[in-house]
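Form 12-C: Joint structure prediction
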Amino acid sequence: MTAHRVLGVIDRAYRGAVEAQFFDAVYGVLDFRAQLGEVALALRGPAVTLAVDEDSYRPVLDLGGVELDTLPDYRTAVRAVVTEGIPVFVDEADLRALGFDPGRLLDGVHCLDPDELAARWSDYDQVWFV
Amino acid sequence: MAMLEQRRWDLLLVLTAAPHSTDVVTSALRLTQAVLDEGGSARLWACGYSTMLTQTTHGAAKPRNTRAPDVEYPSTVTIARRMLQAGGGRFGWIACTACSAERGATRHIPEVRLRSPMRFRATVDAANTTIFIGGA
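Section 2 - Result
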């Protein structure tokens, strides 16, 4: 089977917590990579914040007297993607528009000028808007 | 003639936005929990695709996470059940019958009260405060 090179573009960041849990916007990328061969991830718009590093937020809620600690943890998800060798690109203009410096990004994430990011589309067989 | 006194609720939350879209479902449950934690009473009226949250077809747990197969992720049915149980009658979950029928979401857990949209005004009148969280 021929490998597909796919660039997954994520523009919309937050898609629920309690109802989604592990099945966040980034989760599917890991399994798709196993099927397709080669996948890269481009974060744009509000989704750039998924790759901003911080360590104070704990995705835990107390509902009905039970601690719900299986909520989406986007930064951990992006870290997992990077750890597995999947390239993660962040749109620099969108990042700066939200007040973040590229130095705030998780290690291993590539910050690219929007024009450069768009120019990379042709490196892939398909571009998916996830 | 003796009049039946209608029960009053501190808060009615009307949730019309779809799950898996934004923060609305989580926010609605957090607001509800905050009211319950203060000793108040709350009702959640689920409209639109939020009627999907309490379908028996969810089962107790979400599908397996291929990256963490041993972790148990509670379904929204389990979360709703826990809240209803812990609420001890101070929390009620209503599903709109019209929205449920239109979406084929007609297999609610028995703890959920089904109510026709024709009863919406009466439900609002029974609450001291109504918050309508739109976005359907």
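Section 3 - Comments
The two ends of chain B are 43 Å apart (CA to CA). Chain B has four helices and five strands.
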